[in-house]
Amino acid sequence: AVKSKLQTVEGVKNVDVDLDNQVVRILGSSPVKTMTEALEQTGRKARLIGQGVPDDFLISAAVAEFKGPDIFGVVRLAQVSMELTRIEANFSGLSPGKHAWSINEFGDLTRGAASTGKLYSLPLGDLGTLDVDEKGEAFYSGPKEKLRVADLIGRAIAVYATEDKSDPGLTAAVIARSAGVG
């Protein structure tokens, strides 16, 4: 049931199910949220324990965790090829509307987002805007060309109060290496 359900998800190329160890390995390009929801529709609980790419890149995955006290979220970055990174983000606790977000130069959080410096290597560091719903939640999934995950470790992702990236920012999180599934 698990394998057949996941194989119907667009972008899924291969599914390996190990029921004894309660592990499902998926090879594909679908957003993690889409694959997790499909797995949960089979009546099982699911959580991501890692992601990566089949090829051995120096660093193939990174994560930035926003741990509150008001804004929570996670941003995952996965190197799809040497010239393409896939970004997935989930946030809660933001005010409804549009919020700019970016990759900034430094991972210095001593003054929150205000101490993370300027946008990293324009236009690479410009992530656009998050559309936050009436519950304060936002989801983003998309590619970013010419962005290399290995170059981002130790920098920060910042979220702003409005669409204007010149304000000090609401919150930020440091981009850290993330284990890939192999």
Describe this structure in words.
In the C-terminal section; belongs to the Cu-Zn superoxide dismutase family. This is Superoxide dismutase copper chaperone. InterPro entries: HMA_dom, HMA_dom_sf, SOD-like_Cu/Zn_dom_sf, SOD_Cu/Zn_/chaperone, SOD_Cu_Zn_dom. It is a peripheral membrane protein. It is found in: Membrane. This protein is mostly beta strands. It folds into 2 domains: 39 residues, no CATH class; 117 residues, Immunoglobulin-like. Helices cover 8% and strands 42% of the residues. It is built from 2 helices and 12 strands. The strands form 3 sheets. A 5-stranded antiparallel beta sheet has the order 9-5-4-3-12, with no helix packed on it. Strand 3 and strand 4 form a beta hairpin. The longest helix is centred in the N-terminal third of the chain and has 9 residues. The chain is globular, with a radius of gyration of 17 Å. The two termini are 24 Å apart.
